[in-house]
Amino acid sequence: MSLSDVLAVWLCLLTVSQAYVEVYGCPATGYFGSNCSVPCPDVNCQYCHIKTGTCQGCKPGYKGHRCEITCERGTYGAGCKETCEHCRDVNQCSVNNGTCLTGCDAGFKGDLCKTACDRGSYGYDCKETCGHCRDRYPCSNINGWCLTGCDPGYQGDLCKTSCDIGSYGSECNETCGHCRAVDHCSNINGTCLTGCDADYQGDSCKTLCPVGYFGQDCSDTCINSYTCDGCSDVSGSCDYGCRPGWIGYFCQKRMQERSKVRRLAVDKSGR
Ligand SMILES: *[C@@H]1O[C@H](CO)[C@@H](O)[C@H](O)[C@H]1NC(C)=O
Ligand SMILES: *[C@@H]1O[C@H](CO)[C@@H](O)[C@H](O)[C@H]1NC(C)=O
Ligand SMILES: *[C@@H]1O[C@H](CO)[C@@H](O)[C@H](O)[C@H]1NC(C)=O
Ligand SMILES: *[C@@H]1O[C@H](CO)[C@@H](O)[C@H](O)[C@H]1NC(C)=O
């Protein structure tokens, strides 16, 4: 590098720095003049020429040669280059800094309404709590709908409604058993919370009493409980037939199958 080259670079730098001082010379923005005490002639001007007062740069929220234009609806900031986020009212987005002056749309929070509600909440000011959504997926931050359906026992878009009385489980597809009180059937797993109707047993009261038993909690015994195939829950008589091998009103008689077979055998050999 020759001496003249170095000189040329130095001169160039000097020019640039002088230009900088001329444009942005005053430490306080919005003023000009040799004392930096005269306000820029254009009210929304942030930087004006130190000698002439010509505007060189507008305050955030304004544009135009004399900064006479307010940012269009929905934009803000230096040169109006930023876009307002999810303001509840886009007319109430500060042209200066993008703050939503009357709050956010449903599903968003923060001064700028740029941040979605935390997982598990939704709505205006993120004040609502998601319902019983299935899986690890949360609900929509905007309207609270569960995106992949409900946990067992719940229904509706929000999964905040229990299954209708008498049904339970996934998508409320299951039907409650013979609960003593159908409104005490667990909406989640079908357990009959206050026990079963007469003649039924099990958590969900879907199983008949064992053969030979009947009544509340299956605590009554049929007459001939070993041979009856279910009996009247009033009299205990064998109204539903006998177990294989037994006959009679009380299923008290053993079928005579053996003798029948023997008789046939005798008939055959007798010919
Ligand atoms: C600059 O400041 C001096 C002294 O502080 C004052 O006499 C003079 O009037 C000022 N000039 C302007 C243009 O304000
Ligand atoms: C944003 O600007 C508004 C006025 O437009 C003002 O009230 C608010 O304090 C400013 N917020 C911040 C964070 O500077
Ligand atoms: C529930 O029933 C609906 C309609 O009958 C069916 O499409 C769905 O697959 C069922 N869901 C379950 C979990 O059984
Ligand atoms: C069934 O759900 C009820 C609540 O509805 C609960 O108390 C019970 O423990 C559950 N039973 C089983 C077997 O999960």
Automatic annotation (TrEMBL):
Family annotation (SMART domains): EGF (SM00181)
Keyword terms, alphabetized: EGF-like domain, Signal
Domain EGF-like: 39-68, 79-114, 125-160, 171-206, 217-252
InterPro entries, A to Z: EGF, Growth_fac_rcpt_cys_sf, MEGF10/SREC1/2-like
Example GO molecular function: scavenger receptor activity
Cleaved signal peptide residues: 1-19
Keyword field contains Transcription regulation: no
Protein name: EGF-like domain-containing protein
Source species of the chain: Magallana gigas
Lineage, opening ranks: Eukaryota, Metazoa, Spiralia, Lophotrochozoa, Mollusca
